[in-house]
Amino acid sequence: MKQDNLLQRQHTMLNCLANLPRKMLLLHGADNITEFVLHDLCHENCFNLKKAAFFIDNPDFNHTKGVAGFSAQEALKTGALWHNPQEFSKHMQSSAFNQKVRSLSHASAAHMPELAQTLGFENYAHCRWAMKHDNHGFVLYEKADTQDSFADDHLLNGLSLLSFCPVF
């Protein structure tokens, strides 16, 4: 990647990540804020993901639950979701991929390859992190450009923002 392109990409990603907490506060109390945050994180101006599925695992209860899903094929333009939250929420209710992720509920022993296959991931990777109350968050994802490694160092920190979203 050329230096100018790299700097531009770095700037747009930083801008997306820096604005997310403020946007999250604008919609505090919304049941599906996780969908908004995941959508922005996956956008081409941020981590440029083709597909992502966010899960929370509670080992104490031996339970893994799908929380939100993103598919670029079903995505809205990023500005539309924050300016018209009702339209975005309605859109996400009709998103087949998001509904499939949200419907998944397994024992904690569920393996990521099985989840990835169920969701139709081809070349997936994952990030996993500790959350409050001894839960663990993890995201299965597919990059839009498999050669793009620019955001890899920042992906876990960005996806960790999902931990600040309420889960309903």
Largest sheet: 5 strands, antiparallel
Overall number of structural domains? 1
**The first-level CATH class name:** Alpha Beta
Give unreliable regions as ranges. none
Q: What structural class do helix, strand and pairing data support?
A: alpha+beta
Share of helix, binned: 40-55%
Per the principal axes of the C-alpha atoms, what is the gross shape?
globular
> What would the average pLDDT be, to the nearest integer?
91
Cα-based radius of gyration, to the nearest Å:
15 Å
Report the total helices. Answer: 7
Structural write-up:
- With 168 residues, the protein is of the alpha+beta class.
- It has a single domain (3-164), classed as Beta-Lactamase, CATH 3.30.450.
- It has seven helices and five strands; from the N terminus they run ααββαααβαββα.
- It has helices at 3-26, 33-42, 78-83, 85-93, 96-103, 112-118, 152-159, and strands at 49-58, 63-71, 105-106, 125-130, 136-143.
- α1 (3-26) runs antiparallel to α2.
- The longest helix has 24 residues, at 3-26.
Overview in brief:
This protein is of the alpha+beta class.
Q: What are the salient characteristics of this protein?
A:
alpha+beta, Beta-Lactamase, about 45% helix, five-stranded antiparallel β-sheet, about 170 residues, 7 helices
What's the arrangement of secondary structure elements?
Blueprint: H1 3-26, H2 33-42, E1 49-58, E2 63-71, H3 78-83, H4 85-93, H5 96-103, E3 105-106, H6 112-118, E4 125-130, E5 136-143, H7 152-159
Antiparallel strand pairs: 1-2, 1-5, 2-3, 4-5
Helix pairs in contact: 1-2
